[in-house]
């Protein structure tokens, strides 16, 4: 009897302890997420068929369009109002929307009305915009668990980090939502990447898409989506022949089964989730007994577990008395933006404490803080290498596993996984700058120069390959007024390149957006390129002292005076010629014949003097007049000759920026939109700001008399050098290109008049100019740039022959770098912000510097260049050069030659005049013949053989 009573009591207690809790659920779903609703129905059926759970679920289901937020909200509010008015307000809202404005609207609805909600929407921490500003109470009942499709792309991040992949393209289909992944997926990883949906309309569209990615230098492809989507992409890649050692393919799917394609020879790394071993039996039972056959099965299991855990969590709160006894529900129309009710519902703890066995994999929920964006299904993904030949799968090799999470690393069982990724290669963007980077079609990479040799040395040490291309606009990188960058810096910021390589200056604004390695090249500043001061030289410079008409006048006067001197000598009764007896006892006797007059007038112009003057008074007056004329001409000639030979010394060369700013004959400017222009513009702006500050201080009425006295100056105390120079540059007109600037310098008349180009010192040292297709015969010209330092020594600079690429050295030895460089900055290699390449390159550059490799490269490209040109050394002495006075030696040599000829003619004339012509020996008297033969001079005996025969 006692046993019977005990049995009845036990049955009675058990019946009351298993009181069924009715749970009102508002399920909100999207039109294209039918799998979630089906899993919810399975969970409801599971509860119904398992009375031991003590649950009864009464759901209201609302399905809306994610893009039509207004209609969606109206439908939800209407259903919600019906539940409240029917005395069945929702205990919990199951939000199965995925993303978009519809999902954001539901988040706003639940947070505004204070409805306990469990969401399965896509989004990491901070991505749910309407739930970002939740208070401490709201974080207890507004909960989100990330769906597996949201977490699976994190495997791409793990692979890229493990394999050190430098470029990647992520292609996804409609099943995955990647809107919030564009910035977060590869955040702080120096990998050029593109995340783009698959153009699944046709195979041709996909082939075009893949071709565009390959043209951007992408070699690693990640395809995430269903197996049919993966098949389409692989078939398109096969037709484009994108399989091989230079490309790597990764397929990530939630579907079960093997991938297939019509690939001739391809190896793809396949990544597929798999259920936990402990959950496989439960999953199979649900599929068999409850018809949970939705695919992908992991997604179906996720929504089933999320629904069931939500039911049990609400029941736990109701059973424990932690659910508010009189919970008020506010209607949609009652909300005014500020009257959100305060709920003291700890749904978070109840949800975490549920011990129900998982169907696929357990939920991971952080111990502290909010769980939104940080909780997910902790599943396992298998990695395997699938080999396909001629469309047939011929082998599968296991590579390892990955446990889902935000920072979980790969657990590889195959150490050779590197064989399944593209070779380590970096994309380099550059800008041409001789001799740092130059185009060369014959070079392996299409470029040559100092920087290319440096990168070759670095790549050999770090064991990587690289592709190099020019920046789209050919610029190094500058920021405009809107904060937008161009050139190399822009390519690095937008992750279209890994490395920026050229003569790239380290600047503060550039360091804010990219990282620089330690400098690989000495400090290089700005310099002034202008004409070399030219010294005019001429062998007959002594003749150019007087103009031609003066020389002709002197010559005419010379002959005129000589002629009249001869006339006066001939007709004057007091001349020596007409009074020989009168002057027979004089020691100085001189008859002024015409020849003697010419000689006298000539020698009178020399310091030696003319000698004995004429005896007649008229002749003497003429001589004195001639002497006065000659003294005047000779003095004038000597004075002008000295001035001509020393006039170049009076030219003051420009040796600094100050010297350039203080003169007005030479125009000067940098190239428009160049870093040099930016430097002067900023300096002028700074001076302008200083002026405004000083003016504001001076005009400040609040200053005391003592303070005002301290500012009492007669003029503005700060130099306005750069402001004046900036205005002068604008007035001069800045060249649009380097070619234009160089042409203006070459067209300058002299170093004192023309144009000076202010530019980077490396531009001055060596120049390569693309003349364009219409240059004509100028392609054959070779001109050289010369750098002149303060010492006056000229450094030989390299030149390049004209080539088919139409690059030509368009400068010459008439150009110089005036003075010293200023505003010096080092050259360094630029990388993306946070890139590990910075530390690696720093170590290698230090090593190359210590090994003197950098010094050897400088010798190669500047001093030992086989194409280097030698310019003549400028003679800086102040003496008279042979180039200016050498004509005197020529005149002397010509005169000596004429004298020698004259001596010969005199000797011949003397012999001809003294010689007696003999016609017949028989005509002579015997005694005459004898005497003539006996007393004839030796010279007269030289008779021709023909005369002797006669």
TrEMBL record:
Species source reads Pieris brassicae (White butterfly)
User: What family does the database annotate?
Assistant: Belongs to the glutamate-gated ion channel (TC 1.A.10.1) family.
Site (Interaction with the cone snail toxin Con-ikot-ikot) at: 847
UniProt-recorded name of the protein? Ionotropic glutamate receptor C-terminal domain-containing protein
Instruction: Show the disulfide pairing.
Output: 77-332, 813-871
Signal sequence, renumbered to the chain: 1-17
- The site feature described as Crucial to convey clamshell closure to channel opening is recorded at 654
> Which GO CC annotations does the UniProt entry carry?
plasma membrane
């Amino acid at each position: 009897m006692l046993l019977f009573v005990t049995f009845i009591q036990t049955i009675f207690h058990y019946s009351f302890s298993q009181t069924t809790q009715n749970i009102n659920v508002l399920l909100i779903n999207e039109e294209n997420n039918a799998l979630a609703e089906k899993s919810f129905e399975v969970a409801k059926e599971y509860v119904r068929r398992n009375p031991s759970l003590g649950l009864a679920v009464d759901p209201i289901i609302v399905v809306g369009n994610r893009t039509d937020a207004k209609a969606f909200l109206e439908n939800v509010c209407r259903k919600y109002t019906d539940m409240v008015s029917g005395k069945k307000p929702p205990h919990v809202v199951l939000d199965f929307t995925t993303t978009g404005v519809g999902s954001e609207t539901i988040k706003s609805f639940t947070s505004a009305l204070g409805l306990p909600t469990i969401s399965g929407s896509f989004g990491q921490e901070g991505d749910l915009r309407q739930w970002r500003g939740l208070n401490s109470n709201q974080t207890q009942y507004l909960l989100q668990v990330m769906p597996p499709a949201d977490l699976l792309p994190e495997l791409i991040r793990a692979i890229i980090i493990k394999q050190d992949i430098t470029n990647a393209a992520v292609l996804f289909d409609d099943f995955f939502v990647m809107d919030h992944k564009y910035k977060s997926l590869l955040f702080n990883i120096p990998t050029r990447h593109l995340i783009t949906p698959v153009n699944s309309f046709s195979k041709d569209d996909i082939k075009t898409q893949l071709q565009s990615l390959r043209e951007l230098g992408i070699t690693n492809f990640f395809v995430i989506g269903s197996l049919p989507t993966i098949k389409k992409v692989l078939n398109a890649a096969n037709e484009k022949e994108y399989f091989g050692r230079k490309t790597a393919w990764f397929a990530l799917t939630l579907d079960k089964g093997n991938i297939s394609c019509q690939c001739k020879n391809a190896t793809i790394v396949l990544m597929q989730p798999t259920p936990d071993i402990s959950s496989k039996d439960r999953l199979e039972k649900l599929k068999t007994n409850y018809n949970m056959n939705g695919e992908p099965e992991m997604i179906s299991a996720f929504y089933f577990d999320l629904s069931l855990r939500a039911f049990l969590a609400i029941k736990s709160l109701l059973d424990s008395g932690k659910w508010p006894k009189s919970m008020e529900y506010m209607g949609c129309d009652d909300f005014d933006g500020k009257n959100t009710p305060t709920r003291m519902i700890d749904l978070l703890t109840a949800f975490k404490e549920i011990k129900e066995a998982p169907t696929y994999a357990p939920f991971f929920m952080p111990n502290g803080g909010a769980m939104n964006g940080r909780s997910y299904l902790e599943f396992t993904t298998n990695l395997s290498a699938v080999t396909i030949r001629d469309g047939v799968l011929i082998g599968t090799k296991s590579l390892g596993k990955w446990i889902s999470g935000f920072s979980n690393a790969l657990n590889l069982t195959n150490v050779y996984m590197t064989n399944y990724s593209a070779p380590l290669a970096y994309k380099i963007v550059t800008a041409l700058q001789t001799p740092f980077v130059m185009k060369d079609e014959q070079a392996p990479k299409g470029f040559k120069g100092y920087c290319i040799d440096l990168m070759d040395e670095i790549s050999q040490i770090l064991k990587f390959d690289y592709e190099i291309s020019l920046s789209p606009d050919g610029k190094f990188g500058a920021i405009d007024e809107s904060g937008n960058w161009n050139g190399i810096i822009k390519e690095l910021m937008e992750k279209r390149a890994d490395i920026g390589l050229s003569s790239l200056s380290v600047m503060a604004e550039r360091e804010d957006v990219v990282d620089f390695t330690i400098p690989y090249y000495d400090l290089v500043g700005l310099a002034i390129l202008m004409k070399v001061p030219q010294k005019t030289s001429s062998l007959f410079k002594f003749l150019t002292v007087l103009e031609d008409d003066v020389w002709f006048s002197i010559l005419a006067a010379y002959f005129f005076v000589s002629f009249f001197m001869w006339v006066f000598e001939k007709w004057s009764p007091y001349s020596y010629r007409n009074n020989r007896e009168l002057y027979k006892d004089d020691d100085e006797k001189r008859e002024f014949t015409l020849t003697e007059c010419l000689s006298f007038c000539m020698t009178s112009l020399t310091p030696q003097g003319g000698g004995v003057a004429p005896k007649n008074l008229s002749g003497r007056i003429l001589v004195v007049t001639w002497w006065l004329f000659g003294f005047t001409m000779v003095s004038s000639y000597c004075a002008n000759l000295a001035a001509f030979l020393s006039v170049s010394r009076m030219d003051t060369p420009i040796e600094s920026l100050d010297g350039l700013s203080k003169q007005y004959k030479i125009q000067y400017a940098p190239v428009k939109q160049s870093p040099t222009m930016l430097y002067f513009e900023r300096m002028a702006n700074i001076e302008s700001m200083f002026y405004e500050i000083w003016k504001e201080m001076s005009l400040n009425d609040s200053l005391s008399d003592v303070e005002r006295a301290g500012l009492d100056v007669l003029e503005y105390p700060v130099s306005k050098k750069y402001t004046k120079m900036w205005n002068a540059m604008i007035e001069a007109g800045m060249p649009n290109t380097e070619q234009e600037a160089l042409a203006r310098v070459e067209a300058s008349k002299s170093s004192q008049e023309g144009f000076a180009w202010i530019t980077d010192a490396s531009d001055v040292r060596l120049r390569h100019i693309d003349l364009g297709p219409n240059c004509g015969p100028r392609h054959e010209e070779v001109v050289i740039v010369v750098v002149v330092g303060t010492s006056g020594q000229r450094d030989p600079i390299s030149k390049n022959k004209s080539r088919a690429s139409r690059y030509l050295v368009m400068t010459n030895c008439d150009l110089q770098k005036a003075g010293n460089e200023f505003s010096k900055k080092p050259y360094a290699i630029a990388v993306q912000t946070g890139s590990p390449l910075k530390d690696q390159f720093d170590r290698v550059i230090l090593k190359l510097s210590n090994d003197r490799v950098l010094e050897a490269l400088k010798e190669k490209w500047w001093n030992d260049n086989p194409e280097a040109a030698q310019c003549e050394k400028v003679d800086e002495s102040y003496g008279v050069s042979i180039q200016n006075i050498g004509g005197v030696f020529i005149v002397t040599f010509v005169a000596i030659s004429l004298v020698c000829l004259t001596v010969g003619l005199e000797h011949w004339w003397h012999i001809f005049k003294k010689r007696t012509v003999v016609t017949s020996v028989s005509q002579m008297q015997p005694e005459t013949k004898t005497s003539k033969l006996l007393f004839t001079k030796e010279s007269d005996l030289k008779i021709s053989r023909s005369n002797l025969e006669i």
